[in-house]
Amino acid sequence: MDEIAIMNLVVNSGNARSLALEAFRDARAGKFEDAEAKLKEADEVLLGAHEVQTELIQNELNGKGIDISLLVVHSQDHLMCAMVVIDLVKEMVEMLKNK
Description:
Largest sheet: none
Number of domains: 1
Shape: elongated
Helix content: over 70%
Mean pLDDT: 93
Structural class: mainly alpha
Strand content: under 5%
Low-confidence stretches: none
Distance between the termini: 48 Å
Number of helices: 3
Order of helices and strands: HHH
Radius of gyration: 15 Å
């Protein structure tokens, strides 16, 4: 079960990051409504990843932690990168809208 949760974290984080980058491309093309829709979807997908992370943290706090592996570290890296990309893209979209 833990491996499935960790892979869900990787997949959801990667999908959220990709949606944010697509939103930026849309904004560069002047398609701001499409960009906003993709950013909203990215936030929703990221929420799924965050819920998995929260479950893993709660399990650890309750004495049911998992062994730290390269895959676990990789999943956390994906989540943090997705969060940063989404935040930056939101700011860049606003900059482009106000140009």
